Amino acid sequence: MRILIITSYVIGIILIVYIILCVFIGLVVNTIAKNIKQKEHAINVLTAQKYDLLVALGNYMEENDVHLPDEFKDALNINGYDELKTINTIQRLNIKTVLFNIVSTMFYIAESNGLGNNQRYITLHHSILEIDEQHRKNITIYNSQVLAYNYWIQFFIFKPIAYIFRLKKKETMF
Fold first, then answer.
1. Strand residues in 52-115 grouped as ranges (E)
2. pTM across the whole model
């Protein structure tokens, strides 16, 4: 009889510890998920700002009779911030690649046509480079948070709870 009571206490203590761990891990996962959403929003905003700066640079180049190839105008056909919210990682990577290629070529065309010393060009150039730096920092933080989130939802203690709440692994960005 005494062994049964001791066993009941031990099982009760183990269950209480398990519940406390699950609550703690759940709070951690919830905080990480909120941070991921904030970083994803920031990355989308930075991508939209870069797009706006590229459009401004293109307009400035056109004002100075420096014509861009037509494929650039087609490649910059992102319909704004709302579309950026619904794209997946592969589409975001494609947009990032296109924007990177366009930036490099636009800088080259502008500088080879004598706009490199103009103050407005310099301001746009530095703004685009600053956005790129912020973009890289946000992606680094986003990826570290996604790795932490994926770790915790796969953690053996929390895995059944993650399954019940249908928590899915998130994708990292490149």
1. none
2. 0.77
